[in-house]
Design goal:
alpha+beta; single chain; 5 helices; 3 strands; elongated
Length: 116
């Protein structure tokens, strides 16, 4: 009689919360593989949508892109903070200088003067 009780104890497994809810941990083979879009394709998409006036869907079809990928590229482009650099040559006390300004939107972040 002891043998049957020992075998029933070893066969009993405690269910965890993950097992009861059906949640499975992802294995390496289940990981999603992302394809990286080349920069020139992104630029072509931006050109077609912003310059030529194509709809995102039409430009995505032309470039063989997934529509959701094209939407994401456009979203990141529109919401990306843009740094701009300006430079100009000035003279102080008859010495030429190069004045460099880095701007974020309309605010000057950094300004340098370099002697030429």
């Amino acid at each position: 009689m002891q043998d049957s009780s020992v075998s029933s104890i070893t066969a009993y497994r405690v269910k965890t919360r993950q097992a009861t809810k059906g949640i499975q941990r992802p294995s390496n083979k289940d990981k999603r593989k992302y394809s990286h879009i080349p920069e020139d394709v992104k630029q072509q998409l931006l050109f077609q949508v912003l310059e030529k006036g194509y709809r995102i869907k039409d430009a995505a079809i032309n470039l063989n892109l997934n529509y959701s990928t094209a939407k994401t590229i456009m979203y990141t482009q529109r919401h990306q903070k843009k740094l701009r650099a300006q430079y100009r040559q000035i003279t102080l006390n008859d010495k030429p200088f190069l004045k460099i300004q880095v701007r974020l939107e309309s605010q000057v972040i950094r300004e340098n003067m370099i002697a030429i």
